[in-house]
Amino acid sequence: MTRKVRLGIIGLGQQGGAYARFITEGLVPNMEIGAVTDADPAKQAMAAESYPGVKVYGDYIEMMDSGDVDAIVTCIPHYLHPEVGMAALSRGLHAMVEKPAGVYTKQVKELNEFAASKPELSFAIMFNQRNNPLYQRLKEIVDNGEIGEILRSNWIITNWWRPQGYYDSSEWRATWGGEGGGVLVNQAPHQLDLWQWICGVPKSVFAKVSYGFRRDIAVEDEVTALADFGGGVTGTFVTATHDMVGTDRFEILGDQGKIVVEGSKTATVTRLKKKEREISQDMGMDDVRKLFMGQLDMDEFLTTETVEFDSVWGGQHAGVLQNFAANILDGTPLLAPGSDGINGVRLANAIHLSSWKGEEVGLDFDEDEFLSMLNDRIRTEGKYPKRA
After folding, report:
1. 5-129+314-337 and 132-310+344-381: same fold?
2. What is the pLDDT along the chain (388 residues), one digit of tens a residue?
3. Which CATH number fits domain 5-129+314-337: 3.40.50.1100, 3.40.50.720, 3.40.50.2000, 3.40.30.10?
């Protein structure tokens, strides 16, 4: 029988429960549930009933030391991801952390450095959208230079509508001390990752962020960020949780084409036959006249392709789990190495810091300053201890 990775699921909430279902339903053929940990006795009872024969623990350290698991996944609050990830790696267990990798870069750096000291162990992050065939194809198009050099990128992703009851459902939700932020750390980390995965890491950001704008919360529910990638290349990122209609539109403009993604489902890829500047320089006044009169045949200058894939819900998450297990078993390259998790955290931190200071902030910002200002907000809440 082919060996399977025994996964320890830490936290049997929405995500942990979904992963357990994927595994038991055979969507991750090279993985089995080794054990489950949850501090809630009701969740423990549910796990025992739902997954007979699987060991259930109330303490993740006890589970890690049990010998029942080869690897773990952290389906717990964001602040705990680095701490629990390092606890697993220190015991010779492979680790997958949920997104985001943490709340602030100092803790994620510590996790990455510790993981780097354990090269024999697999360290991954659940960036399931990297397993989305649409975004994989778009990254390939950009990397191959099919739309030329990127000049500008824009992502408006506001289809995260959350009513007040969502925020009132848990005491820790939408707090600085319990969750570490709002839409940037909860709903949008996948897009922050994909944006940088495809378009590159910006050099600086200037952000206007509203905190408790349309919801009774302390953290952000509206974000507009302008990113500078250097060399005149810019990008914008807009997100919110109060737009009932919602928009998901991602545009990448190159000097030889353009990509427009609608709803993370369909992409229109336009490829220019020559670079835009060359086309411009070659046009005479007769061409300009035709342009103004709507008589210019654009097919002479470009081609258009529609890119679309069927994507079954759960298939992307299951695929990342399967890839994680394959990396453990035979060294298959990871779709989402854990060390990449710092990119989205760094950008979210920079957006927060820019809004707090009211100025443009480099991605090489002072991490101690960010943590100090985060702790100011945690202290004002008065519910949680400060972070170190």
Report:
1. no
2. 469 999 999 999 989 999 999 999 999 999 999 999 999 999 999 999 999 999 999 999 999 999 999 999 999 999 999 999 999 999 999 999 999 999 999 999 999 999 999 999 999 999 999 999 999 999 999 999 999 999 999 999 999 999 999 999 888 999 999 999 999 999 999 999 999 999 999 999 999 999 999 999 999 999 999 999 999 999 999 999 999 999 999 999 999 999 999 999 999 999 999 999 999 999 999 989 998 999 999 999 999 999 999 876 678 999 999 999 999 999 999 999 999 999 999 999 999 999 999 999 999 999 999 999 999 999 999 999 999 9
3. 3.40.50.720
Domain boundaries, the chain: 5-129+314-337, 132-310+344-381
Look up the pTM and report it: 0.95
Instruction: State CA 281 to chain mean position distance.
Output: 41
Tokens of 236: 């914008």
Query: Cα–Cα distance between 252 and 243 in angstroms, integer?
Result: 23
Q: Give the CA distances from residue 23 to residues 19, 34, 198, 334, in Å, rounded to whole numbers and listed in that order.
A: 6, 11, 30, 19
Edge-to-edge strand list for the sheet holding 5-10:
55-57, 31-37, 5-10, 71-74, 94-97, 123-125
Cβ proximity of 69 and 63 under 8 Å: yes
H/E stretch holding 6 reads strand 5-10
Q: Domain 132-310+344-381 classified CATH 3.10.290.10? A: no
- Alpha carbons 143 and 278: distance in angstroms, whole number: 22
Residue with tokens 């992050």: 125
Strands 204-211 and 361-362: antiparallel
Tokens 């991801």, residue located:
81
Calpha distance 372→388 (Å, rounded): 9
Tell me how far apart the alpha carbons of residues 130 and 265 are, in angstroms, rounded to a whole number. 14
Our CA dihedral for 316, 320, 326, 328, rounded to 10 degrees, sits at -170
Burial letters 225-257, b for 16+ CB under 10 A, else e = bbbbbeeebbbebbbbbbbeeeebebbbbbebb
Structure tokens at 271: 């490829």
